[in-house]
Design a protein that fits this description.
Helix content: 55-70%
Largest sheet: 2 strands, parallel
Number of helices: 18
Structural class: mainly alpha
Protein name: DUF2336 domain-containing protein
Radius of gyration: 24 Å
Distance between the termini: 88 Å
Number of domains: 3
Shape: globular
Strand content: under 5%
Length: 387
């Protein structure tokens, strides 16, 4: 009881913002696989304070939520420890907000918080949005000034590191900067997208490519965010890779890498890494059915990349893909090994690899045959053009 009392006393000495930041940091460490003795009790207490529904995902308080509103469609729930082009970890918002309030613009932040709370209490949504937009502009200008030199950038990085040990938090600040710079362009691009793209066929690829071409002319640095918005509309997100393969001269890894939207391939690999992390969490909490569905999706992504990009095994993308699949195989092996050899495990079922069935293999051969015909036709046209 003495330890519990001391813990409660320590937590109460922290500001609400610091307690919220502590909760986000403990959750980040847990998602990264870092064991923290006593962390579960602390998280339980802090969630009871900040998340009345017991949610394990961070949700911003009102003033910060309105400030971060332009990022909402780009946020992901998960460990912010690996690359996620075009997306921002929700768990980094709390330390970023505390850094803004305590170090970047403390006086203006206090004024902003008071103004937002007053407008929310007055039920004046237009003024709330206007107040948030004004503060976003102020933060944008200060960030641009702060990051204008290497010395001030390193100082800002060090200050932010006082609120989180995440290696990617500062990267998320830079992403936030790029999003804020686009103003209304990114929301307008999002509004023009179809509500859902059930099948990313040639016509849809051509239409989306045309919209992306127009967007990147004005906002080239924000292109990954536009691509992330496209991925949200896809029923099968890995099909984002078609933006690269469709524009490539052939399906070879070298030609795909030279295509205008080759950056979608590492974005798809990022999503595969997300599923690896989710699989690890599901297995840790004995959510076998969730793990089964995740594993099926993982195998589908692996298969799609290998089918649609020839010789991917011999390029940087293929090396990363193999590293991810090896890590996933290790997770599955560790889970399956917990059971006797004569007891089948759902994660060891071949049915999860639908492409290993006869139908899957026939589909694979059909795709390869179609690709060969298309590559041959392209080579013939090129030859004719040279003669």
């Amino acid at each position: 009881m003495n330890e519990i009392d001391r813990l409660s006393e320590f937590l109460q000495r922290l500001t609400p913002l610091s307690r919220s930041c502590l909760l986000s940091e403990l959750e980040r460490l847990e998602l990264c696989g870092i064991e923290m003795p006593g962390s579960a009790d602390i998280q339980s207490r802090l969630r009871a304070e900040f998340r009345k529904d017991g949610s394990t995902q961070a949700r911003a308080t009102s003033p910060s939520r309105y400030f971060f509103a332009p990022l909402e469609l780009l946020l992901i729930d998960g460990a912010p420890e690996h690359a996620n082009a075009g997306r921002i970890s929700r768990n980094t918002l709390t330390p970023i907000w505390e850094w803004i309030c305590r170090d970047l613009l403390p006086t203006m932040a206090r004024d902003y918080i008071k103004a937002i709370n007053d407008q929310v209490a007055a039920n004046n949504p237009k003024e709330v949005q206007k107040t948030a937009s004004t503060f976003q502009t102020k933060v944008l200008k200060v960030l641009e000034s702060t990051l204008a030199s290497a010395d001030s950038t390193e100082l800002a990085r060090a200050k932010l590191a006082q609120y989180t040990a995440s290696r990617t938090a500062f990267d998320d600040v830079m992403k936030m900067l790029d999003v804020l710079r686009t103003g209304a362009a990114l929301p307008k691009f999002n509004e023009k997208l179809p509500k859902q793209i059930a099948k990313f066929d040639d016509n849809q690829v051509a239409q989306i490519t045309s919209q992306l071409d127009a967007f990147r002319k004005s906002h080239p640095r924000a292109l990954p965010f536009a691509l992330a918005l496209v991925a949200r509309r896809l029923k099968t997100p890995w099909q984002l890779v078609r933006l690269a393969t469709k524009a490539a001269a052939t399906k070879s890894a070298a030609d795909v890498a030279a295509a205008p939207y080759a950056c979608v391939v590492p974005m798809v690999l990022d999503r595969l890494d997300d599923k690896r992390l989710a699989l690890r969490v599901a297995l840790r909490h004995n959510r076998v059915l969730v793990a089964r569905d995740l594993l099926a999706e993982i195998y589908d992504i692996e298969y799609a990349l290998k089918v649609r990009i020839d010789d991917i095994e011999h390029c940087e993308w293929g090396i990363r893909l193999q590293q991810l699949m090896d890590a996933i195989a290790a997770l599955v092996s560790a889970e399956v090994s917990r059971f006797p050899a004569n007891v089948g495990h759902i994660l060891g079922s071949r049915r999860l690899r639908s492409h290993d069935t006869l139908g899957g293999k026939l589909t694979y051969l059909a795709w390869k045959g179609r690709d060969a015909m298309q590559d041959g036709a392209a080579a013939f046209r090129k030859l004719i053009g040279q003669t």
